[in-house]
Amino acid sequence: QVQLQESGPRLAKPSETLSLTCTVSGGSIYFSSYYWGWIRQPPGKGLEWIASIYYTGSTDYNPSLKSRVTMSVDTSKNMFSLRLSSVTAADTAVYYCARSQPRYYGGAIDYWGQGTLVTVSS
Amino acid sequence: EIVLTQSPGTLSLSPGERATLSCRASQSVSSSYVAWYQHKPGQAPRLLISGASRRATGIPDRFSGSGSGTDFTLTISRLEPEDFAVYYCQQLETFGQGTKVDIK
């Protein structure tokens, strides 16, 4: 059973960089057909896809966040990371890491982390 | 950019009733990429349906998905108490805004 666990600071200051890591267990990131990504949910709002990465390091970013987002993967540690720069209060959200099925199988998100609330405040 | 519009925003029903949730895309999309999720407060979303109509592992058969082109539907044939939640449709990197199914 694949499990994903988010970790990182729960509080970020405005204009700083938010950094989160997702550790994967029960399955290997390396040489798999899956995409690994981040989705967030601001308080009282819906889900927003942020970014995804393939084990090779190939990335795909939400155009509305692209200028501020960086994803990376560490296959040796079976984890991947998110960096979101120049944060504002609008970036306050529950951040989920997740696994997406290969596109040839539909691309749905079949495993999710429990989510971590990150608050942007001075 | 594809926009997914879900309706209604809130659906108030009683246990045992049938729920019909709609997801409309701003342009035609491949049904292969349409998924539905159930989301309860404090929990991670759960995949219900992928490929517009394929139930995920362990999902009860009271959940069914259908549709093609721009119109997709999630149907819950008989609502159980644990089904009251928010439901999202998704097409690859785009989510709908969600439909809340609450108890009448």
List keywords for this structure.
heterodimer, A: 122 residues, mainly beta, 7-stranded mixed beta sheet, 4-stranded antiparallel beta sheet, 0% helix, B: 104 residues, 3-stranded antiparallel beta sheet, 10 strands, globular
The largest pleated sheet of chain A is described as: 7 strands, mixed
**Number of E strands of chain B:** 10
Strand percent estimate of chain A: over 45%
Shape descriptor of chain B: globular
By DSSP (H or I, 4+ residues per run), the number of helices of chain B equals 0
The chain pair with the largest interface is:
A-B, 22 and 24 residues
Percentage of residues in DSSP E strands of chain B: over 45%
Characterization of this structure:
The complex is a heterodimer of chains A (122) and B (104). Chain A is mostly beta strands. Chain A has strands spanning 3-7, 11-12, 18-25, 35-41, 48-53, 59-61, 69-74, 79-84, 93-100, 109-112, 116-120. In chain A, a hairpin with a 4-residue loop joins β7 (69-74) and β8. The termini of chain A are far apart. The model of chain A has no long low-confidence stretch (mean pLDDT 95). Chain B is an all-beta fold. In chain B, strands 2, 4, 5, 6, 8, 9 and 10 form a seven-stranded mixed sheet that branches. The A-B interface holds A 39, 46-49, 52, 60, 62-63, 96, 101, 103, 105-110, 112-115 and B 1, 32-33, 35, 37, 39, 43-47, 50-51, 54, 56, 88, 90, 92-98.
Map the helices and strands.
The complex is a heterodimer of chains A (122) and B (104).
Chain A: E1 3-7, E2 11-12, E3 18-25, E4 35-41, E5 48-53, E6 59-61, E7 69-74, E8 79-84, E9 93-100, E10 109-112, E11 116-120
Parallel strand pairs in A: 2-11
Antiparallel strand pairs in A: 1-3, 3-8, 4-5, 4-9, 5-6, 7-8, 9-10, 9-11
Chain B: E1 4-7, E2 10-13, E3 19-29, E4 34-39, E5 46-50, E6 54-55, E7 63-76, E8 86-91, E9 94-95, E10 99-103
Parallel strand pairs in B: 2-10
Antiparallel strand pairs in B: 1-3, 3-7, 4-5, 4-8, 5-6, 8-9, 8-10
